[in-house]
Amino acid sequence: MPEIFVVRHGQASFGSDNYDQLSELGWRQARWLGEHWAEDGHGFDHVVCGDLQRHRETARGICEGLGLDAARVEELPQLNEFDFQSVVRAYVENNVEKNPQLAPSRNTDKKTYYRLLKQAMHAWSAGEIAAAETWPQFEQRVEEALGVIGTGGRSGKTLVVSSGGAIAMMVRQVLGAPVHSVIQLNMQIKNTAVSHFFAGASGYSLHSFNHVPHLDRRERREFITYS
Q1: Which of 69, 71, 177, 187 would bridge with 181, disulfide CB 3.0–4.6 Å?
Q2: In the chain, what are the domains?
Q3: Cα–Cα distance between 129 and 54 in angstroms, integer?
């Protein structure tokens, strides 16, 4: 039965001019995960990632740790994160008259920003705001990604690198969970956390979620991050 290991990208560069690039810690998280799997004798038959910079860099870091050739990585744009900046912007524009303090700035801290993102995602999923991508379009492309990965002729073990929102949507679709679960799960997924799926004739099953074996040790727990 094919196994799929879905990894959220390493820590990105929150607050910088280019959020999409990994921070130095993000690179280390990715390499540590690859090294953990190498020590465990764990390899992959296929490696797939979205085409965002943080996805490519995370896949490359994991491959470095594993001793795999990063040139073998396939890119699948359906694995990309939703445009969270567009969603937040649409929410702010829709509510700024009622709350002029709503708009984030470069000085907005992570806790405040992610509280705003959560509110924006609820409005987006309910169809109350118009972002660059609609919620149904997001649902559809993640479903397409699962179809390609699970039924695209791949056997054995597949490593997938994606983002928190897309992974949360995968989990919701596999479990048949309510829409709001995507928002709850999205806020919980750690950087370079692993979610393990099996793909069979009847569809996907979830074996484990949000696991960080390479960081869940005394000397590395301080390096567990969520952005």
Answers
A1: 177
A2: 3-81+134-223 (3.40.50.1240), 84-125 (no CATH)
A3: 27
